[in-house]
Amino acid sequence: MADQNQAGITRRSFVQQSGLLAGGLLMGVRGTSLAATPHADPAKPLPTRVLGRTGREITTITLGTAPCGLSSKIPPAEIAKIVDLALELGITSIDTAPAYKQSEEGIGMVLGSRRKDIFLATKVLADTIEEAEKSLAKSFEL
Questions:
Q1: Distance between terminal CA atoms of the chain?
Q2: What is the distance between the alpha carbons of residues 81 and 26, in angstroms, rounded to a whole number?
Q3: How far apart are CA 51 and CA 82, in angstroms?
Q4: How high is the pLDDT of residue 45?
Q5: How far is it, in rounded angstroms, from Cα 99 to Cα 46?
Q6: Average pLDDT per consecutive 10 residues, the chain (142 residues; last block may be shorter)
Q7: How far apart are CA 69 and CA 5, in angstroms?
Q8: CA gap 13, 26 in Å, rounded
Q9: Which domains are seen in the chain, by residue range?
């Protein structure tokens, strides 16, 4: 708990920032050309933290894909553009779920060789281990 206070980031602010980033990216892609979007300054990388006991270092801001995946107006190709922009800006953590419909497909369209550099979190809604494994396998296919 001391680490959270030292870094000035709480779980609540982390979740809030993630939602703001997703909304900002969504509005930016839908309202302007990607070519006109300012890019992150490589001299100033996004802040990172070690994820629990995994030892894995990820950005303190995660791209949450619920706003994209839950909207029937945003096709997977547009979601792919949002994810690609987030990765270009330095995001290394993405959150999705099968319930977010097209988000998994959009993410899959752009990860490719970058998959090893991204922490990808998903969720399953299942009553049995078999259902959970089936849901996870389907997510891996996308």
A1: 36
A2: 10
A3: 24
A4: 84
A5: 29
A6: 54 64 57 52 80 91 88 88 92 90 89 88 90 87 70
A7: 33
A8: 20
A9: 2-141 (3.20.20.100)
State if pTM tops 0.85: no
Predicted confidence at residue 13, as pLDDT, reads: 63
Task: Determine the Cα–Cα distance for residues 96 and 103; give it in Å rounded to an integer.
Answer: 7
**HEC letters along the chain:** CHHHHHHCCCHHHHHHHHHHHHHHHHHHHHHCCHHHCCCCCCCCCCCEEEECCCCEEEECCCEECHHHHCCCCCCHHHHHHHHHHHHHCCCCEEECCHHHCHHHHHHHHHHHHHHHHCEEECCCCCCCHHHHHHHHHHHHHC
The residue with tokens 């290394």 is 92
Pull the structure tokens for residue 116.
Answer: 């090893």
Q: What's the confidence (pLDDT) of residue 63? A: 93
112's tokens: 């490719």
| 66 close to 103: Cβ distance less than 8 angstroms | yes
> Which pair of tokens denotes residue 125?
């809604």
